[in-house]
Amino acid sequence: MKQRDLVELIVLAAIWGASFLFMRIAAPEFGPIATAFVRVAGASLLLVPLLTLREGLQDLRRHWPGLLLVGLLNGALPFALFSFAALSINAGMSSILNATTPMWGALVAWVWFGQRLDGSRLVGLALGFAGVVLLAWDKASFKPGGGGFAILAVLLATFSYGIAANASKRYLSQATPLAVATGSQLAAALLLALPAWSQQPVQLPSLRAWGAVALLALLCTSLAYILFFRLMKRVGPTNTIAVTFLIPVFALLWGFLFLHETLTASMAMGCLVVLLGTGLAVGVLRLPMPPVTRPAK
After folding, report:
1. Is residue 181 packed enough to be buried (19+ CB in 10 Å), middle (13-18) or exposed (0-12)?
2. Which domain does 67 fall in, by range?
3. Of the listed ranges 187-196, 244-253, 261-270, the one predicted with least confidence
4. What is the pTM of this model?
5. Is 101 among the domain residues?
6. Rounded to whole angstroms, how far apart are CA atoms 36 and 55?
7. Considering the domain boundaries, does residue 290 fall inside one?
């Protein structure tokens, strides 16, 4: 990986790490669904003209069924679920659970495409789930004020991301990366429009909340997706997926600096277990294999 690519990877992790901070600020005033809608609608306002300038609108017409599916699974549903979770659990916890996304992607690929899971990947899946249990153990109360439903929402969102990654591979491999980014956000905006209208905030959100949701749309969605797909093209999916391991670092840092969130010992341990398990599950890390002994002739 070239130095330029490494810098872009770190920048992308910092941007996506900040998205959890911005959701924590915006969701209480906008509500989860409206937060998600303004995010994808704002991203569409930037991405559609950019795609038009590159004469890529024909890809939207050609691949609209796949874009609608990916828009639901990679935008509308997970963004709303993450915004809902932001009402109850902190940015650091959400970002750590978000790191399970590649693990879900590997599991879906195994079920959907029959992709082989060797011993290292199976151990990784088991470790990843153990890390989730460790993280959720003291917060999984479903009583008022508990974080149980928020944790389930994040896990459902990451599972949706895992399906979306495989759906993109299955149905949108012939579309350009910019068309996939634009079409999926536009589809997500259309899917969320009516629910967001019915769940619009009673009071006008503050300028702070508007600023947070604007940064979600322009920085954490539009710019982030452009960087992500550019890295995918230059360094491949295996290297690009390393961004998932860096996101919690920045989310915890931003949460500490701007929201005064703390990192507990159980969160640190759970984070390490989740990242180790995910690394094994996606093949970035490998367990040491015993040497193969050949019988003497």
Report:
1. buried
2. 3-281
3. 261-270
4. 0.86
5. yes
6. 28
7. no
